[in-house]
Design brief:
CATH topology: hypothetical protein yedk fold
Structural class: mainly beta
Order of helices and strands: EHEEEEEHEEEEEHEHEE
Number of helices: 4
Distance between the termini: 25 Å
Strand content: 35-45%
Helix content: 10-25%
Largest sheet: 9 strands, mixed
CATH superfamily: SOS response associated peptidase-like
CATH class: Alpha Beta
Number of domains: 1
Shape: globular
């Protein structure tokens, strides 16, 4: 799964990268090196034929949900079932987004002599942005207030990621961004646009267990630590 990631680039830079207008306001004014579920995250989507960079809450709340707390359990959507599962199929059909990040964290079994799982930080080896495939939804409460939420699509991890965790986020190549974001795109072949984070494109380094606590933040979370 993808349960934490880093998003330190400015929204100005992200909007330029993704060819979107920046409509995030103050929601993402500070870099976040420990993005956790229910936090606001930058997302590119198309609304009214315009590509926009907006802030969405991480953890998808389907439009039919009675309670928004369901979002904390829907931070990831499995590629294998995303087109059919009731929680995701409507969003997959019409509400796809791009979720830019610097990298993501995963937890491996504890090394010898250590009780806690070992967190790893995985990021593109060339320093480029990591643009994850996502879905978004709009939920209305009893007073018609809107809650915009998102989820990350994941797949089975390949060998260079699988030693850390058995799932990893899917990415969207730049040449396919427009098709992925198009609400009217044919569903046939959409999943074929997505790519697993594999083939040596990622660097993976062990990092401090400080990342386990969502209250900890800052670039120090990305620094390599020695393991047993």
């Amino acid at each position: 799964m993808c349960g934490r990631y880093a998003s330190a680039r400015s929204t100005t830079d992200l909007a330029a990268l993704l060819g979107a207008s920046d409509e995030t306001g103050e929601a993402l004014a500070e870099p976040d090196y420990n993005v956790a579920p229910t936090k606001p995250v930058p997302a590119a989507l198309v609304r009214h034929d315009e590509r926009r960079l907006v802030a969405l809450r991480w953890g998808l709340v389907p439009s039919w949900a009675k309670d928004p707390s369901i979002g904390s359990r829907l931070i990831n959507a499995r590629m294998e079932t995303v087109a059919e599962k009731p929680a995701f199929r409507a969003a997959f059909a019409r509400r796809r987004c791009l979720l830019p990040a610097d990298g993501f964290y995963e937890w491996a079994p504890p090394p010898p002599g250590q009780k806690a799982k070992q967190p790893w930080y995985l990021t593109p080896a060339d320093g480029s942005p990591f643009v994850m495939a996502g879905l978004y939804e709009v939920w209305r409460d009893a007073e018609e207030r809107l809650l915009w939420t998102a989820t990350v699509i994941t797949t089975e991890a390949a060998d260079d990621v699988g030693h850390v965790h058995d799932r990893s986020p899917l990415t969207v190549p730049r040449e396919d961004w427009a098709t992925w974001l198009d609400p009217d795109a044919s569903l046939d072949g959409l999943l074929d646009l997505l790519q697993p984070a594999v083939a040596g494109a990622l660097s993976a380094v062990p990092v401090s267990t400080q990342v386990n606590d969502v209250r900890n933040n800052g670039p120090g979370l990305l620094e390599r630590v020695e393991t047993g």
